[in-house]
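Ticket #349: bound-state structure for KG4.
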Amino acid sequence: MNILGIETSCDETAVAVVNSNGEILSNLVLSQLKEHQAFGGVVPEIAARAHIDHLHTLIEAALKDADLELEDIDGIAATSGPGLIGGVMIGMIAGKALAASRDLPFVAVNHLEGHALTPRLTDDIAFPYLLLLVSGGHTQLLVAEGVGQYTLLGKTLDDAAGECFDKSAKLMGLPYPGGPELQKIATECADGAAAIERFPLPTPMKGRKEPDFSFSGLKTAVRTHVEALPAGDLQRTDVADLAYAFQETVADVIADRCTKAMKYFSKKYQSKEPTLVVSGGVAANKIIRARLEKLCKDKGFQSYAPPIKLCGDNAAMIAWAGVERLKKGLKDPLDFKARPRWPLDEVKA
Ligand code: KG4
Ligand code: ZN
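RESOLUTION: The complex was predicted; output attached.
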């Protein structure tokens, strides 16, 4: 079974073909970075127009890359929410049109379920697993119990982790998208301990019993530090120190929140091989990956993070969610409505 996946929920136009054995036959991502860079963030209208401009070419290219014709495709999976609604509708409607034209099953994929099922595509991780979903729009801890079965344990009460990375990076004068840029400049910090002492930052929610998150205070503290630096152009060494301190703090908070969720997971599921999976764009962060790996080692959990290429938005994860759903006989009607908001624990099997 070959499934064509389409992803257009934010600023990446992506198309992929994945088969039911979990082989990625093609995986194309066209980033709109340049279109949005001048605005310091994603402009929804520009994103939607760019999806229209490129999607059809990308579909052709993904089929060619997979060495397949449309006749070889057995189902279409398209992100149908959550996300920027203009973009979501473009990908979803293209997917529906393809499905209708060839009488193929259509799967309306929840973008977050795409991130959540990625570890099963790449490493065949068994349910249930503890899932830390950290992206530009979401920060949540859930238990993935099965396809379409997610129990929410905690979530951010304000900004998402990726949003906090992006906004803090912007305050530090770094270009968009901030997350990877901040990670890059933090490696230039010469003395980590001194940087942390120089730029003390709050650790919101640390120690709380419920595994919720809060990141807006952290961003505000970054602003205060930046404003206290000498006026004029920020010195690269100052930014490197602040970025280092920021990244360590985020990793700290995330590890603390995960510890609480792990405790709950161990008690409730008594799984022989408890696993913590981190997924979403921020899962590409090397410091956070390393911190979670260490935490898992200490707590007797298996640690899993997808390859960097599959952390950010892509269509292979959408095609794979389609595979998982179709294997269970789950498909969606062609009048499925795009959903700008669609929490993962509202996804149904
Ligand atoms: O999952 P994703 O590609 O899109 C959403 O669904 O939101 O996540 C994008 C987010 C952005 O906020 C970006 O800055 C962040 O992931 N990100 C990173 C890194 N790479 C991407 N944050 C920290 N460190 C990174 N290396
Ligand atoms: Zn995403």
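RESOLUTION NOTES: The longest strand covers residues 12-19.
TICKET STATUS: resolved
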